Every structure is written in structure tokens, then in C-alpha cells.
Amino acid sequence: MNISRRDFIKKTAALTAASCAGITIPLSICNEAKAEEADKWVRGTCRLCGAGCRLELGVKNGRAVALRGVTESRTNLGYVCMKGMLFYKIIGHPERLTKPLYREKKNQKFKEISWDKALDIAAKEFAKTAKTYGYDSVAYYGSGQSQTEETYLFQKIFRVALQTNNVEGNPRLCMASAVGGYMTSFGADEPIGSYSFIEKATCFFIIGSNMAEAHPVIFRRVMRRKLDNPKDVKVINIDPRISPTSRIADIHLQFKPGTDLALMNAMAQVIIEEKLYDEKFINDYCLLKQQGEKDVKNVTFEDYKKFLEDYTPEKAAKICEGNITPDKIREIARIFAKSKATLSMWCMGLNQRIRGVWANNLVHNLHFITGQLCKPGADSFSMTGQPNACGGVREGGGLCHILPGHRTVDNEKMRNELEEAWDIPKGRLPAKIGLHTMAMFSAVNEGKIKAIWINCTSPAQSLPNADLYRKGLNRDDVFVVCTDIFPTITTEHANLILPTAFHFEKTGVYGCTERRSQITPKAVNPPGMAKPEVWIAREWAVRLAKELNDPIALKSVEPFLGLEDGYALPKAIWDEYTHKTTKNRDNDLSAASYEILQEMPDGVQWPAFTADFARKGGTEIKFVKGIDPMADKESKDDKPFQFYGRPDRKLYIWLRPYKGAAEEPDAEYPFVLSTGRIIDHWHTTSMTGRITELMRANPYSFVEINPKDAEKLGIKPNDMVEITSKRGKCIMPAKIIEGPIEGMVFAYWHDMHDDRMINKVTKDAFDPGSKEPEFKICACKIKRVSGPVPLKPYIVTI
Amino acid sequence: MDDFNLEFFKKRREIIKTLIISPLISLFYPVHASSGILSSPIGTNRLRPPGAVSEEIFAGKCIRCGRCVEVCPYKSIIQLDIKNGVYAGTPLIIAENIPCYLCMKCVEVCPTGTLRKIKQEETRMGLAVINKHVCVTWKGETICRTCYNVCLFKDKAIRLDELRPVIDEKFCAGCGLCVHGCPVSYKDNLKAINIEPIYSQNGKSE
What we know:
The complex is a heterodimer. By secondary structure, chain A is α/β, with parallel strands linked by helices. Chain A folds into 4 domains: 5-91, ADC-like domains (N-terminal domain of TfIIb, Single Sheet); 101-174 and 388-555, Rossmann fold (3-Layer(aba) Sandwich), CATH 3.40.50.740; 177-383, Dimethylsulfoxide Reductase, domain 2 (3-Layer(aba) Sandwich), CATH 3.40.228.10; 671-786, Beta Barrel (Barwin-like endoglucanases). Helices cover 34% and strands 17% of the residues of chain A. In chain A, the strands form 7 sheets. In chain A, strands 6-5-20-19-18-7-8 form a 7-stranded mixed beta sheet, with helices on both faces. In chain A, strands 25-29-26-28-27-30 form a 6-stranded mixed β-barrel. In chain A, helix 1 packs across helix 2 and helix 11 runs parallel beside helix 17 (356-370). The longest helix of chain A is centred in the first third of the chain and has 19 residues, at 115-133. Chain A is globular, with a radius of gyration of 26 Å. Chain B is of the alpha+beta class. In chain B, 26% of the residues lie in helices and 15% in strands. Chain B has helices at 2-28, 55-61, 67-71, 105-109, 146-150, 177-181, and strands at residues 46-47, 77-79, 91-94, 127-130, 142-143, 158-161, 164-167, 185-186, 190-191, 193-196. In chain B, the strands form 4 sheets. Chain B has a 3-stranded antiparallel beta sheet. In chain B, strands 4-10 form a two-stranded antiparallel ribbon. In chain B, strands 6-7 form a two-stranded antiparallel sheet. Chain B is globular. The relative contact order of chain B is 0.17. Chains A and B meet through helix 2, strand 4, helix 3, helix 10 and helix 29 of A and strand 5 and helix 5 of B.
């Protein structure tokens, strides 16, 4: 940004004057006034949540000094949250890993080694393991925070060189149920609409999401919409806990955790009973489906009506309890159906459940039967947790059953397409679906997986029932490689730690919730010997091919040999990925080149296959002719919407019964434990815990207890409380708050301390469809152990 | 104790000087306006523990037994040293370092009633004041609401108005949790939200 000195003084004067008068100053002036702090500003994307806020990193003398929002961006409109404003402090952080570290046995101390040695060791171990125990004895566990280029390259190496589909990532723990929901209901993954719908919606149906803390900048848009139109816009919030999100709600329904499936079926019952459904939309675009014992059955609308008889508002209110009454169910169903445009938003509350896919289906059902879809403001819009779960992992093939470009492993034609694109012999790609996350770490426990590469995530802390899986990672016959920027709980179980470059220290693309791909270029050098993951993966693969003595293995990285790692290498990977694997797929990004992405204040929403279209920002609404070029291309009739996800062009309304949680409270464990997030922290706190300002705001985890329960148990604010489940226990301070419903406690999972790591308590049961674990519900008991105790924040060090 | 001695000898000359001069000064100035040895340590983010009597009589009533300091589980309360003249030995909370968590243990043990036995919600150590020219949320730069999150009387003492924090003096206990949490610092010790001990004078602490 170039502004002259005079301009600056003028603006500073305006700013001072405005602040003296107590006026809220327009963002653009604030941002320009800050410009003097840095020599240059480099535009990129936020490293943290899935919102995809665009921001600029201020660089002074080669060091990162500030972050600010990009006002022209269509995602955040210039706003950032505190995490987004402060993460530049990670870039020059003194605790960063700067040298490769190695130890032979897990009880030894780490020794610093050279990159040459480190990569040789990694290549030898993986090659040896694959040769001795078979290809399926090695695994990759990646992250929704890796850049697309990284995930794409790693999965390519594992699939081509090591011939295994044991490629997973932490999105299995957060978005797998949403993928399952979109795939079964729409036949195509990822949301249809965009954030721009927020400004057009007249009803928000927020269920199982505390957006105010998890996606604060998107929540700001929702709040703005509501406050600017207090009468015309209704906000319905459905959550067993009163969260900061509930504050803007007109109606907040609080219920027994895990009963929302019954609630949503009851809403459908009311909509059909009161004839509020859109018959034309259903006839034109929908089929009704029911999962039989062996296969999927087609059913009629009458069958659906009959099925819903079990979910009359009266029956559902009995199941749901809390403040839910039959009248309230009728009221929200009417608002949902009658509103001009209803926008549903949800996140982990529905996904991290043993029936996560079903819960997702039931939200989609409500939109299908009311026709609240494909028109401005109306969508079934799943919020994404991580910044690149959509872009990198769901689109880039980062899970055991999928391949890049929204392909599936079990489809031979699709495998062949990739074999051709990658120039490898037909039949080389393994056909067997790999191990999903929970199965993968169980296999580590059983010693079936002998070498695992963990990139940019900390499963030792983030897996449910964590202690159980830490045992496996600690086995001396399991070789663990970690690529990360900081020591984590997981690096404590590693044999080899490879220091990587952080965001803005390398170039790469993130794809956020609304199908938008956005680039973050390199702005500063990584510290010490830290290297971008793409360089590490390439160098390792070259050595691996040599060890395996397999020329085809080398094919995985052959196009990228010798390229400079800061820009040319990720660019070559991005070009291969977009041109060779996404072309003619629904996530077609072939026009979204690095050049165009860098021109844009934000990024490109797929499908986008012409440069002009990409420059406009891409597809705002999928499946709508005239807006989505793919819908025009795939058009088979004269209907305005083309749901090209399936050959039959139909949306499926699923008849999904209510089913409770995997572990319901009983006499011994009478409470429901749920876990979640707070605005200041990000996941395991390996990053935000090292930012003083954020850590001071929330130095340790605590457990929220309903005042009525607290009184019964004699627990006072800040008393130390023990939370015990069948799997483990935690001790943390109590917060007595009218938040969780009676009989439920809520703990934050941002704490590395062994006493307060709540995932030791959570349950590792998972959804049979999406294989996503039920973090949100397990049974526990609580007991006061002492009065207040001064606690120190804890961050793991090497 | 070593620190104490060291401080003492370092400052001995100054103290002797002050001891001689201050009676002279006090002849010309009213007591509460003087600086140095006779000035109260209370100020922005420098607070007395819960239930404290008016600052005017605090130093006279407090017997410097240190029980409140000892009982505080969070080590929020410190005992002032000799530099503080007539206030040496009295308890103080430095809000930005360790705020008061309002556990109300100190009021239970005070033998003199200098800290009166009040209830948690009756505590008025001061009033939180937001500097809207410094607060990043009020400036519209960022969405931060740490002060709201950490407040023990959330939605009462601090509520959010269009995502921006607003204080209600009816409920604010002045514990300083918000000051401690606030990520925005300026001018050494000040934050975007600070506690002003407005109740400490003239018996207003009733």
C-alpha cells in the first residue's frame, strides 16, 4: 500500500479527531494508518480457522511485525479476530524448531542432525518397513492446516511410491460427517452457496455451532445482518449449551445432548403436516431414500409421511427435554419454511457425533422439502473448522477413501484417470481403501503400522481417548516422523522431528469453507534450518525411491525435481494438481493459477475453468445455470438447477431415525461431557499458547457447570473439579455458568497439561459412515477435589 | 528478606531525606495531595483487596498482619514494602499482574475488619473503564472479547453490545480479571480496559 506522508498525516489527524469525538472509525482508515509500521505488506490468508479471512502481513527488515485485515476481501470484509491479528508472533518465535532432531529409541534424548542424515533415516525406515511388513504397514497422517500443495504431494508419494491408501488427516476428526452428509444428500461434496448469502438470508438456523467463538468473523456478518434488520431476520439457535452465539438468537432451544435428530425430524413432520413444503421442488429435484438392511430402498412421499409419524412435536419434545415444547418445534418449523431465505449453519456439534452423517442429512432434508436452496440467501451451509480441510484434504485427496479432484479410491475408472495424469502404469494405484484415522491409530497400537509420518497436527492430544493411542505411538517398534514448527505432545513420541516453515514462510494455497481457494505467498525466510514441507517431501521421496529401488516410485516427484522451494516448487505442484486432476471435475480449479490468485484481493471459488471467470471470483452458487458454468456445461434439461453430483441429477431425502449417543449417562456416570472451543485459542494451543496475549486471556482449560448442578455438588467458582469417565480423568477449575443444560458439563480442549487434557476423558466411538469420533458426547462423573488452586499455563518443550 | 534489606539500604538516604522534608512539606500541603512517602499506593489497576474500608482510614486500621496475603490462593495480594512509607505492610493487588479471583478468603481472615466480611457480588474494588481509543474491538480493527470472556459476572458487569464490550457499574466488582486478560497494552502498564478505584475515597466503599 502506497500512501504519501501527507496523506498519512491527514489520515492520522482524522483518526485522532474521530476517536476524540467517540466515533467508530472506518476500518480502511485504521488499516492505512497502520501502514507506517512496516516496509511492505504481503497479502495472504489467515493461518487459523476455516473462515478464510484475508489479511496482510507487515514485514519490516525481513521480520514479521503486524497483521491487518484486507477490506476488499469477500470473506472477512477487513475484519480479523484476535488470533488472526496476533499469529505473526509465531513467525519469529524463539521456541520454533530449527534443526532436524533424531533419536533411535523413544526414551532417549533427541540429537541434532543434518537434513541429509534426517532424510536418509526417514527414507530407510519407510522403505525397510514397507519391504518387510508390506506396503500397508506405513501411514501418513496429515492435517487440514497443511497447504493444498503439501497434502497433494504427500498423498501422491504415499499412493504412488509406497502403494498404500493409508493416507489420513485430522479432517476425519472434524469434517468427515459433513462430507458424508453432502455426498449422500447432494452426491457432491462441499457447500452450495457462499458467505454472501448471509447478507441475503432472512432466517438463520444455527445448530451445533458456536460461531461466535469458533468463526468470530463470520459470526460478525450474521450478527450485523440480524442487528440491521431486527424484525425481518430471525435467528434460531439450537444447542444444549447457551453459548455466546445464542445471544443474538430470537429463539434458543436447549435440549438433552444428542437428541437433535428427533428434533429435526419433528420439524420436517410439522412442515409436511401443515403443507409448508415445496411440492414442485421435491418433484423436480428430489428422490426419497431409505437405508435398508442390505441396500438402499426408494420410498414414496407417503412412506416419508408415515415415517415421520414417530416424530410428532409431542413425541419429539419428550425425547429432547430441556426447554423444548411442541409449540416451539412448530414455531421454528414454520419460520424455517416460510422465511424468504433460510440459511442453515452448523459445525462440530453435528459432525462430531456417532450419527453425524444422519444429522447432516436431516438438515439437508429440511432444505430439500422446503426448497430453501439455490436461491440467494438460502442454503444448507456447513462451516468448516480448519483453514484447509476443504481445499487441501477434501479436494486434494487427503483421506483414505478419496483421491484428488473429488475422486474415490474404490472407483477403478477414477484411479485410471489419475494413473494417466501422473504418468504411471495402469493398476499401480492401490485399490484397497486405507485405514481411517481411528483404525489407523488402533493399527499403530497393535503394531500393524510400523512407520507413520505425522504432519502439522498433534494426534497424541487431539484424538479422543488420547491415552490409549499414545501408548501405540510410544512403542519402540513404531517409527514416528513429525513435521512441525513447535514441539507438541506428539513430538514427545517421535523418533524424528523435522522443522518446517510456517505460514508466510512458504507459498501455498488454502481453500476455505465457501469453496474459495486463496494463496499465501512467502514473505519472510523460515528460521534456522526449517524447510517447507513440499521440499521435505520431495527430497525424502527421491531417497525413498532409491531405497525401494523402484523407478515408478520416483515418478511421484519427478516433475518437481530441482525446483526452488519458496515459489517455483509449490507452483509446479499446484499447476499439476489443478490442471491434471481437477480439470473437468466439479472442483475444477484449472483457471485459478498462482498469477490470478495473487491478483485477487480474496481468491477463486470453484468451479472456475476460464481465466475471466476466475478473475471475477468464480462460482457463487453451485448447481444454478447461469451462475455455475459447470451447471451449464452439464445441463441435461431445461430446469434451472442441475444437480450434477449424480448421474440421475437428484437430491436424496433420507429417512433417518433418531438414535442417541454412543454412551448415555447412567447411575455411575450421571453427566454428559461435551468439549469445545474458545475464541482466543486454536486447537491444541501449540501455536496460540505461545502468544503471550492470548495465553494470558485463557491460560488453562476449565469446565463449565450449570449453577443448579454446582449447588447440588457443592462446587463453587474456581474450585478444582475432577471429571472422570470410563477412560480417564482430568482435574480443572470450575466455571459456574448458565451455559450447559442441567446434567451436562462443558470443557475446553485447549490445554496441553496432563491433568487438564480433556481428550483423555472423551470417547473414541465413531460414526459408522463417516468414521468421525463422537467428541461431543460421553458420560462422566464430576466431583469437587479442592478449593481454588493457582495454576500455571503449560506448554510442552523439547 | 534480602530484597527488603537491599532496597532499604539503597533507599536509606532518600528515606532519611524524605523523613526530614516531608513534615515540612505537610505544613504547606494537605496530606492527601502530597507525594512520596505519604501518598496512597492506590491508583489505576492498583487495588485494595475486597471489602477494604475507605483509603483514608485503611492505613490506620490495618495492622499489617499479612494474613490476607498468606491466605490468597492465587498470590494476587502482595504486601507493600518500606518504599511505601506509611503504607508499608498493607495489602495491594496489581491487577495486570495477578488479578483478584474473588474467592473471598481474605475477608474471612482479616482480624481488624479493615477488609469487611462482604459477599462476592458486593465487592467494589473499583470500576472497569474501557479506553475506546485503544480497545481494538471498539476501534473496529478486530473482534476481541477477552474481557467479556474472563468476567465472573458475564452479561452483567460486562455485556456485549454489537460485539463491543460495555461495562455496567451496577455489577462490576473491579476484580481486574479483564485487565489481566486484555491483550492490548499501552503506556507500560495500562491496558485497553483498566480498573479505576473510584470507591476507595471518602468512605464510598460502603
